[in-house]
Design brief:
By secondary structure, the chain is an alpha/beta fold. The chain contains twelve helices and 14 strands. The protein has a five-stranded parallel beta sheet with strand order 3-2-1-4-5, sandwiched between helices. The chain has a five-stranded antiparallel beta sheet with strand order 10-9-8-13-14.
Length: 403
């Protein structure tokens, strides 16, 4: 890549990406453009500007993408009730396509020759960033320093930082022993004692939620209004997608909701143990399924459930910008036309409980038919006899053959 003159770097301002910034300048003799996104991680992103300026960066992008992230990525994913391997709500995975998109767009705006990221060669994020970038800009050049340099440990990184005068901000209290990633959907923890799947997470690891044992003794109730599969109001008050995430994270975290401890299968082939806090996502998943249970046709709902694991794998493995994910999304979105109404949720000591659901316009629940009381001729129970015998025909034929 001797033709590299300018690179757009996904930049957090932390140790790794600050070292990458200097390494890119030294290794490629190139100018570096930094891009820092606020996707609801709960930390100030503006200090990244000062850090980049102190390192001589001339083009600095600091962007508030919280609404776009929630509206165009998180919400579409939850319309599908997406869960990877039965547990993971894809908090890290769903943020990567947005970052990849902005890296490519900024490269086009600034005339950059390449993009760069700080994902390691062992993880999923390198795949997600790069598949997304190639899907949006087929000829893009990608620089992944962790696959090129010989800085293979924290000690070598620190030595490089000291050698090149890169400021390291470790004076602001005890450094976390975990590798963490956060956005408005979740916060994840890996490394440290979590590398032993037998070790229970330490109590002080969790940042967003109280322990269920320490949650209030009185439950909290919240009403979520849905329109076409998306939450549009909380307790009757209109909210934006980003506000949904913020409010439900606060409410769920206060009641010990959203903790998970998972051993998952990475796309690169290894198993990885991680812990996650996803309060808003945990509430949204349960509530959305409750709304669909009232408003979706049975076969539509079952087809969605059949396709969801494939859809989840596409997101986990970095194929958000693929034609197959786009095709599935169109089908999922079409199914949500009737997913309108209100779900009442009860939050209590780590539990998310459906307390009620209603839809004045799209409910398929007919009390006259479902009742155990007199149905006034709405349903003829004798019709079930022929239905049962027809469905039992193949079973009876097989049974006779065995006899």
């Amino acid at each position: 890549m001797s033709n590299i003159k300018k690179v757009v770097l996904a930049y957090s301002g932390g140790l790794d990406t600050s070292i990458i910034l200097k390494w890119l300048e030294q290794t490629y003799g190139c100018e570096v453009v930094t891009f820092t996104a606020d996707i609801g991680q709960g930390e100030e992103v503006e200090p990244a500007r000062a850090k980049a300026q102190s390192m001589g960066v001339k083009e600095i992008y600091i962007e508030d993408l919280r609404e776009e992230f929630a509206r165009d990525y998180v919400f579409p994913m939850f319309r599908a009730n997406t869960v990877y391997e039965g547990e993971y709500l894809l908090g890290t995975s769903i943020a990567r396509p947005l970052i990849a998109k902005r890296l490519v767009e900024i490269a086009n705006e600034t005339g950059a020759d390449a993009i760069s990221h700080g994902a390691t060669g062992k993880g999923n994020d390198q795949v997600r960033f790069e598949l997304g970038a190639y899907a949006l800009k087929p000829d893009v050049q990608v620089i992944a320093p962790w696959r090129e340099w010989d800085l293979t440990s924290r000690e070598t990184l620190m030595a490089y930082a000291e050698q090149h005068g890169i400021p390291v901000d470790f004076n602001k209290g005890k450094k976390s022993p975990y590798s963490m990633d956060a956005n408005s959907l979740h916060i994840s923890y890996e490394g440290g004692i979590l590398e032993d799947p037998w070790s229970e997470p330490e109590d002080d690891m969790w940042r967003w939620s109280v322990a269920p044992e320490q949650a209030p003794d009185a439950p909290a109730y919240v009403e979520l209004t849905y329109k076409k599969g998306d939450i549009v109001a909380i307790d009757g008050k209109t909210v934006t997608p980003a506000q949904v995430m913020e409010q439900l994270n606060t409410l769920g975290g206060a009641h010990g909701i959203g903790r998970d401890d998972i051993v998952e299968n990475r796309y690169v082939g290894m198993k990885s143990r991680g812990c996650y806090e996803t309060p808003a996502g945990t509430i949204m998943l349960k509530a959305h399924r409750a709304m669909e249970s009232l408003t979706l046709d049975r076969e539509v709902a079952h087809l969605k459930d059949d396709l969801m694991p494939r859809y989840a794998s596409l997101i986990y493995n970095g194929y958000w910008w693929s034609p197959e994910r786009s095709m599935l999304q169109k089908m999922i979105d079409a199914s949500q036309e009737t997913v309108n109404g209100i779900v009442r949720m009860k939050l209590y000591k780590g539990n998310v409980i459906v307390a009620g659901r209603k839809s004045d316009t799209d409910s398929l629940f007919d009390e006259r038919i479902a009742t155990f009381e007199e149905d006034e001729g709405a349903y003829n129970q004798k019709d079930a006899e022929g239905f049962i015998k027809l469905n039992a025909l193949r079973l009876r034929i097989a049974a006779r053959r065995k006899q």
